Model the fold of this input.
Amino acid sequence: MPSLYESMNAALRAHWQQHNNQYPTFILAPEQHEPLMAEIALVREVFGPAAALFPRDKFHGAPIELRPGAAPAIRSVDGVETLLEL
Done:
């Protein structure tokens, strides 16, 4: 079972392949966003720039829309929303 971070990475790669490297939008509930940011901070501390430099409103450049009560999803450039596999 992938983590939210892993699922978002896989969805982003698939979207880029299907949509000529255009960015989707991720949809998360606020209670999903905080643990994601904590996981990103941990990854950044180990492998890259300081977590403080990582924008909290994007995931690898793709915008994150916070929607209370939402299940984690990706909205493609053509507007189709698909739930993430967790």
Observations:
- The first helix runs from residue 4 to 18.
- The mean pLDDT is 90.
- The longest strand covers residues 62-66.
- The two ends are 6 Å apart (CA to CA).
